[in-house]
Amino acid sequence: MEGSGSYAKLGFGNLQSPFISLSHAERKGKALYSAGLDHFSAKGELTDQKISQTSLFGSLKNNYSENQSLAIDLGYDRHSLMLYGFDHAIFNLSASDIKQDFNTIHLGANYRQVTGNEGQSTFSPNFHAYYILGSRKTNEFSANFSLPMTISLSNNLFLNAQLDLSHANLRDTISADRSATLVQLPLQLSLKKEKLQIKGGLSLVFDGNKFTIAPQFKFLYNVNDKGLRIKAGLENTFELNSLRKLSKLNPFLVPPDSIKVFRQSDYYIGLDWVNQKGLQFNFSLGITQFRNIPLFVNAGFTERQFKVLNESMLSAFSLSGGLEYVFDETLKFRTDLKYYAFTDQKDQDHPFGLLSLELESNISW
Predict the structure, then answer these.
(1) Which of 11, 75, 198, 271 is the most exposed place for a label (fewest CB within 10 A)?
(2) Which of 113, 141, 137, 116 is nearest to 126 (CA)?
């Protein structure tokens, strides 16, 4: 099958903010080629209040057969901003002193193979590498290798396993090199019945210094045939607090003193509801524990940058929900809410820089 298609979207906002999104895809036989460009920039009313984001990307996907495929992607991202908001009558700084840049080159590959008469087992290794070059001679190399597998033990029973290796190395001219490695191996059994789904197991985790065993559990039950489902679970997630992750949370940051392993534990109950008229609703209530969660406090002599503080233990009551309505094949509305009521904290006085309430809504057409 041959064919090609292109996409273009242009916009402009009230803060001198041009927006450009261009993409092109072309299929030749079993191969699909695609490339694109995204750009957004804005300039505010304050002196030096401006930001710019640009992304170039390309990918190749080859479907060798119905059950076997290989995808390769590469790209370049540039995030540029200014450390605005200080008193220019007191501080006389050059553009290079207040400019904050993150230039990222990334490369990834994913292989997927499905076996069995009905696709009961999957094998899908993937690898991604990132090199970030920041301002003031800061750079970081990070990589991740993941090997998820699903093996069918019977018609209703599955074994899920995923070997996950992550590494990050951060360098600058101020501190010694910082690096960290995280190894994870979640092992879970999944039982699927007509109205019931149960998934549980253990995650074996090694962060270079200590070994941890974390439980995982998920319960889903369809109450009736009208789309109502109750749920409960315990989820443990682990992630490196790399510069790549932290700069997405707060691009005004100073490079961190160390790379910690972040852990989030969620205990929750809730319900989902889907009707046949395009309306979906989900709600969860529970308790969340954060370990080595990054907090942000003002730093630098102008205090326009933020220093990273790793809070070793922070607890919160959590509430999340979502509402989605599909009007037709081309128009969809969705809104999501997440709320944390922070309670116990071990190291710092307050959860500096964390948002207790997030509300996101969008309409896609």
Answers:
(1) 11
(2) 113
Q: How far apart are CA 155 and CA 104, in angstroms?
A: 44
Token duo for residue 217: 């559990």
Tokens of 238: 């682990």
Q: What is the pLDDT of residues 47-70, one digit of tens each?
A: 788 899 999 999 999 988 888 999
Answer whether 220's CB lies under 8 Å from 229's CB: yes
Tokens of 20: 């450009």
Measured CA to CA in angstroms, residue 303 lies from 137, 220, 253, 297, 307 at distances of 20, 48, 11, 9, 10
The closest of 75, 292, 76, 266 to 182, measured between CA atoms, is: 292
Nearest to residue 262, comparing CAs of 284, 289, 297?
289
* DSSP-derived secondary structure for 119-140: --EEE--EEEEEEEEETTTEEE
DSSP string spanning 140-193? Answer: EEEEEEEEEEEEESSSSEEEEEEEEEEEEEEE-SSS--EEEEEEEEEEEEEEE-
Alpha-carbon distance of 146 to 224, in angstroms, equals 37
Cα(282)–Cα(227) distance, integer angstroms? 11
Strands 17-28 and 228-240: unpaired
**DSSP conformational letter for 253:** B
| Structure-block tokens of residue 290 | 């954060």
What pLDDT sits at residue 110? 96
pTM of the model: 0.88
Q: What CA–CA distance (Å, rounded) separates 164 from 211?
A: 15
pLDDT (0 to 100) of residue 226: 83
pLDDT, residue 85, reads 73
Q: Which residues contact 286 (CB under 8 A, 6 or more apart)?
A: 266, 267, 268, 269, 270, 317, 318
DSSP state of 255: P
> Rounded distance, CA 51 to CA 243, Å?
19
Which residues, given as ranges, of the chain have pLDDT below 70? 1-2, 116-120, 300-303
Are the beta carbons of 318 and 285 closer than 8 angstroms?
yes
Using DSSP, state whether 61 is helix, strand or coil.
strand
3-state helix, strand, coil in the chain (%, to 5): 5, 70, 25
Helices within the chain (DSSP H only): 95-98, 243-249
